[in-house]
Design brief:
about 210 residues, 7 strands
């Protein structure tokens, strides 16, 4: 198993550069989320290898058609999430298990001519919470609803319950609180479904 070697530099809104792109079949990853993925496509594996080699971020962007094994660049949504690779495990069959952590939203401006994996010029997007009072009220409402969900769902772990309590008592930006609560729910864009393996790895995600 390979782990990230050192902390990544901070991302600055408006900053633009080229990043390897990992198209996701049926999930959406948000900033502040830590998500395990199962990666099988050759281009995706090569993109991850480049990220580990150059110690950079990878752009996680959901493809428009989950069944497309080799999506064209215009079949991938232009807004995604720049993420750090926390752990990478190569399996005997050539596939890869990877743990990623979302860092910031980014928008693709253009794809490069690189052929061995997807690579795109992307600009880091700033968070725009809008009116502070309204944003804080919405954040509290989401936390309240999530706490109700935790009480009803007996399968929610104690760690998740504790995280919900900390979100209420610990100062945090409304956007971060919303994303943290959202990360506790299934992330499939097409349907809410349980992980297909006991370990929680999301198969056929990339």
């Amino acid at each position: 198993m390979t782990s990230a070697a050192k902390p990544k530099p901070l991302l600055t809104a408006g900053e633009s550069r080229a990043y390897p792109v990992l198209p996701l079949r049926d999930i959406v990853v948000f900033p502040h989320m830590i998500v395990p993925l199962f990666v099988g496509r050759e281009k995706s594996i090569k993109a991850l290898e480049e990220v580990m080699r150059s110690d950079t971020f990878i752009l996680l962007a959901t493809q428009k058609n989950a069944s497309d094994d080799d999506p064209a660049t215009d079949s991938i949504f232009t807004v995604g999430t720049l993420a750090s690779v926390l752990q990478l495990l190569k399996l005997p069959d050539g596939t890869v298990k990877v743990l990623v952590e979302g860092a910031a939203r980014a928008r693709v401006t253009k794809y490069t001519d690189r052929e061995e994996y997807y690579e795109a010029e992307a600009v880091v997007l700033a968070d725009t919470p809008g009116e502070q009072v309204e944003a804080e009220a919405l954040s509290r409402s989401v936390i309240n609803e999530f706490e109700g969900y935790v009480k009803l769902n007996k399968k929610v772990s104690p760690e998740v319950s504790a995280s919900s309590s900390r979100s209420r008592t610990t100062p945090s930006s409304p956007i971060r609180s919303l994303r943290t609560s959202r990360s506790r729910f299934p992330t499939s864009r097409s349907s809410w479904r349980r992980p297909s393996s006991p370990s929680g790895w999301r198969r056929c995600s990339a």
